[in-house]
TrEMBL record:
Belongs to the short-chain dehydrogenases/reductases (SDR) family. InterPro entries: NAD(P)-bd_dom_sf, Sc_DH/Rdtase_CS, SDR, SDR_fam. Transmembrane segments: none annotated. One of its GO terms (biological process) is monocarboxylic acid metabolic process. It comes from Syntrophotalea acetylenica (Pelobacter acetylenicus). This is SDR family oxidoreductase. It holds the Pfam family adh_short.
């Protein structure tokens, strides 16, 4: 089950999972966008199920899990990738709604997906949960306080859940992608340039590390594949940076 599978990083995670032989449940808000991911998977001979779901609504998440069980019988892997950028601006100008909307998707939605999937994994005494945070869960990003706080919350959720479910053979890890090539990051870089009064080129340098390059969605997808593989059986509660070396803690 991959949330936020309709575009961007989640779309690549879903297609990579299908390539590895998983039957993939594609979750996001828009059915039309999920159909594009489903087409990519079908073109490669993979199997998937589209479940348009707003992960901030507990009844919808419960229904999504029920529909998955009806179709596939169990859930082995949950990748919590859905996320929103949140309201941007100096903290004192962030609205209450902007703050709460960001937490509702990035933290509460993730909590709800874990809450409804964990009992199934406990019953199987196996499972892999991968939560997508961000380099901004590790280091500050000016004028993005709701996003930064929500992404750091993901680390607390991951570490605590890892201890709660470890005895059932379930691992829970976080992946922290760096600035990932695509339209979304281009907007972030433009905002950063404007907020700091610097050129786009200089703003981009704030998002690249020693490799001097943005991250590709495939980099994050490959880390998810690894964390769900047998090779990562003894890794849990970790937060792993996929940032081109920009973050090392
Ligand atoms: N793009 C980057 O540079 C970058 C960097 C670090 C971390 N991340 C994180 O990676 C994840 C994916 O990022 P992206 O850039 O591909 O995002 P994106 O904006 O391209 O896609 C976000 C996905 O989340 C889904 N989503 C949003 N709200 C939802 C809701 N209420 N219910 C269900 N689904 C919902 C959308 O439908 C969409 O499929 C996010 O968690 C993001 O914070 C992205």
């Amino acid at each position: 089950m991959v949330t936020g599978a309709s575009q961007g990083i989640g779309q690549v995670i879903a297609t990579r999972m299908a390539e590895e032989g998983a039957k993939v449940v594609l979750v996001a808000r828009s059915k039309a966008n999920l159909e594009e991911t489903a087409k990519q998977i079908a073109d490669k001979g993979g199997t998937c199920l589209i479940l348009p779901t707003d992960i901030t609504a507990e009844s919808a998440v419960s229904q999504m899990v029920g529909d998955t069980l009806s179709a596939y019988g169990t859930i082995d892997i949950l990748v919590n990738n859905s996320g929103v950028a949140g309201e941007m601006g100096p903290l004192e100008e962030i609205s209450m709604d902007g703050w709460e909307d960001c937490f509702r998707v990035n933290v509460t939605g993730m909590f709800l997906c874990c809450k409804h999937v964990v009992p199934i994994m406990k019953e199987s005494r196996a499972g892999r949960i991968v939560n997508i945070s961000s380099i901004t869960g590790k280091r500050p990003l000016v004028h993005r306080s709701p996003y930064a706080a929500s992404k750091m919350a993901v680390l607390g959720l991951t570490r605590t859940l890892a201890f709660e479910v470890g005895e059932y053979g379930i691992t829970v890890n976080t992946v922290c992608p760096g600035a990932t090539e695509g339209p979304r990051i281009r907007k972030v870089i433009a905002n950063e340039a404007q907020a700091l009064g610097i050129s786009l080129k200089d703003a981009e340098k704030n998002f690249t590390g020693p490799l001097n390059t943005l991250v590709e969605p495939e980099d994050t997808a490959n880390m998810c594949i690894y964390l769900c593989s047998e090779e990562a059986a003894h890794m849990t509660g970790q937060d792993i940076n996929v940032t081109g070396g920009l973050c090392w803690y």
